Amino acid sequence: MKNVTDSFVSLGHWPSAGSFGFNTDILATNLINLSVVLGVLVFFGKGVLSDLLDNRKQRILNTIRNSEELRGGAIEQLEKARTRLRKVKVEADQFRVNGYSEIEREKLNFINSTSKTLKQLENYKNETIQFEQQRAINQVRQRVFQQALQGALGTLSSCLNNELHLRTIRANIGMLGAITD
What we know:
It is built from three helices and no strands. Helices cover 90% and strands 0% of the residues. It is mainly α.
């Protein structure tokens, strides 16, 4: 460490200009060489470095501008997409509401038509029952009438003689003739 500090300290004490020789102190000569090289680089490379930095600055600014434009376009597209999404949500809600309304309407129509059909079937059933009851009553009446008629004929034929029998037949035929005219 002492050599390093000595070389810096010895920089302040240059030997007189009358002698020329080689300095063998590597650290002192490296610092001098580096400072000369850096000075030459700064003097001559300042323009090139400035141009490189300006070009880099312009590219960065152009990239930022392009990014801002892309960002603006992306924000605009995002807003359009959000607007479309809102419209689609509203339409979906309308379809859902209309669908539910349509389902309820169809349900009520089905219930009403089924109720109407059931009432018609009930009416047909009642009419059929009444018809069958009437038919059964008519059949019973016919049988009762036939049996009564047979009983009456049997009673009449056992009680009547031929002459009375013929008069009764003629009277009945006369009554039947009067009904059919």
